[in-house]
Design a protein that fits this description.
This protein has ten helices and no strands. The protein is mostly helical and 207 residues long.
């Protein structure tokens, strides 16, 4: 008699994901209670019930426990599904808003606390802007094949960089204003500004 094997859940991956989220949740709680600088990796590990060695398996630095999350993979996956014929800013806006719609209701308060911590901590703010190049490349890859000519590649990079700057500014404004207006509204406002700038400064044509 032949047996048909059923696909089993990857319990190791689920365990890793659960542990990572638990460590991160305890870290953010301690940062809010004690302050970022006053909180040690050892304290975070103890609160999460793991060793400090295990902490570093999931997060290379204390900064990473704040700055790394599950949203970048979600946004890049959604961006890759947007129609290639649409303008890049619109594709990025749509992916951001769709991603937010999936997590905002349940994760809003944690997301706000995370970004208020970033806004209030110079080391985290500096690292946030420093990480923009890596995020920029993730978005460029998700948008599809790189344009063939150098001018188009430069335009794509500048456009993605502008969208990232607009998004980061909207997020930090949201954090600075204690969650008002709501983040999706601020992101829409930021991208509207980009669209207005594009309209007022059209690309010059060669004569």
């Amino acid at each position: 008699m032949a047996y048909v094997s059923e696909a089993k859940p990857d319990w190791r991956r689920e365990k890793r994901t659960s542990t990572r989220r638990r460590v991160r949740a305890h870290a953010l709680r301690l940062f809010c209670e004690q302050g970022y600088d006053a909180t040690t990796v050892e304290q975070i590990a103890a609160a999460a019930g793991v060793s400090h060695v295990t902490f570093f398996r999931y997060f290379p630095t204390k900064e990473d426990v704040v700055l790394s999350d599950d949203y970048d993979p979600l946004i890049t996956a959604l961006l890759a599904q947007t129609p290639a014929e649409r303008p890049v800013p619109q594709r990025i806006r749509d992916a951001l808003l769709q991603g937010l719609a999936e997590i905002y209701e349940t994760d809003r308060d944690a997301l706000l606390a995370q970004n208020q911590l970033i806004a209030a901590t110079p080391a985290l703010r500096s690292r946030l802007w420093g990480d923009q190049m890596a995020t920029q490349q993730l978005l460029l890859d998700a948008l599809g094949p790189s344009p063939a000519d150098q001018g188009s590649r430069l335009r794509a990079r500048v456009t993605v960089a502008a969208c990232l700057a607009a998004t980061t500014t909207a997020v930090l404004t949201w954090a600075d204003n204690n969650g008002t207006p709501e983040l999706p509204e601020l992101i829409n406002q930021a991208f509207d500004v980009l669209a207005q700038l594009e309209q007022s400064n059209p690309t010059p044509h060669a004569t």
